[in-house]
Amino acid sequence: MNLNEIKELLNKYNAGALKKYGQNFLINDNVLKTIANTLKDQFKNVIEIGPGLGSLTRYLVTTYDKVLAFEIDPKMVEILDDTIKEENFRVVEKDILKVNIEQEINNYFDNKEICLIANLPYYITTPIMLKVLEEAPSIKSMVIMIQKEVAERFLGRPNTKDYNSLSVLIQTYMDVSKVIEVSKNSFYPAPEVTSAVIKLTRKEKTNYQIDNEELFLKVNRLMFKQRRKTIVNNLKDIYNKESILDILNKLNISETARSESLSVEQIINFSNELNKIL
Ligand code: SAM
């Protein structure tokens, strides 16, 4: 939809773009097509989070066999119900953070190879990502629009300012790549930040070996607690210092290394070694 269509729709339904729900509607057709088409050869079923006025949804319903969307704002749901009549579309009026995604998938799709396509509400990007990672194994790939700075964290490489525990977490479980950058004026109203579309594909479990997931998540968090500190200093209050040094030596990592210099694999290996001695 272009800017005029969006404004007309908002007027007609006496609706506004609500800041509290991160409502910035896409008005750039090229961007919409790119988002809708990136996974079209691999998937038939798609989940959309936050369909809003349906700019992206209109492309999804013509590109995929079945589309299931979750929208928190009842006004948007009313507009979608009135304007998108395709039989392969269902919108559920729910907060995505409170949805049992796997159950909804089971109820709606016959096949469990699902992708997620969304122009996400930026205020809850990370909680949504963590929820999908942990609770929705049927979602195999995602193409999402997020704030550019957050995209850079997801893509962050060791020894760069963008690399942190979130980069490690995302890259442990997903392959991540950038699709396009999107300027503020592709939206109405324009957000305060530049955006980016990224693609994430869930890795096969056999591609990484984490012996104790809870410990890995904890170690990853602790390691990056204070970026300026060494790994030893970030961990020594919780784990025995000598053991930490032994593990670093065993893994050929300098005793004075900081976490930002460790690859995702090294952090996984570190947690596996720690698990052996706890
Ligand atoms: N997809 C539309 C587009 O591209 O123009 C709208 C995207 S807008 C950035 C984000 C959408 O997510 C809004 O429609 C908003 O109401 C919805 N939303 C916000 N928080 C949500 C939540 N917790 N659960 C489901 N939808 C949410």
> What is the share of helical residues?
40-55%
Low-confidence stretches: none
| Helical/strand content category | alpha/beta
Largest sheet: 7 strands, mixed
**What Rg is obtained from the alpha carbons, in whole angstroms?**
21 Å
Integer average pLDDT:
97
List cofactors, ions and other ligands.
S-adenosylmethionine
Total helices: the number is: 12
Q: What spatial order of strands do you see in the largest sheet?
A: 4-3-2-5-6-9-7
- The number of distinct β-strands equals 9
Globally, the shape reads: elongated
Distance between the termini: 57 Å
> What is the N-to-C succession of helices and strands?
HEHEHEHEHEHEHHEEEHHHH
DSSP strand content: 15-25%
